[in-house]
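Reply to dn_fold:

You asked what the input looked like. This is it:
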Amino acid sequence: MNAAARATAVCRGQYVERVVTLDDVAKIALELPEVVEGERHGKRNWSVAGKGFAWERSFSKADIKRFGGDRPPDGAILAVRVEDLGEKEAVLAENHKGFFTIPHFNGYAAVLIQLKVVGKRALRDALIDGWLACAPTALADEFVARTGPGRRK
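and this is what came back:
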């Protein structure tokens, strides 16, 4: 939906949810302490203390082939680190819209997020949790103390 169509829908009292973009990801990620945005192979990524916790992830030809007859998720895809494989299972079990994995990520502590369908709150939570998984302990503890309990397991 273009900007004019969105404006018309809002004027008519219709609720229009804006699609999350990589710029939204950057805004959320860069609000976290000591985050650096970078680029690798032409794709954006975000790290803390030299550890990547989120990165733009396109599908390789092999990834697409593994989908078989199923159509792969389209639009921008973000990979986000999680604490460990147990956390990955828990995140996927929550069935948040847009969260998934692929065979290439089996045994790897990260989930994939389809930006065009994910909710902004779920994305923010995933980015914070990914940041916590990669941030140095003292920095993560300081963040949790400042933002409130419930973040660090």
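The two ends are 40 Å apart (CA to CA).
Hope that clears it up.
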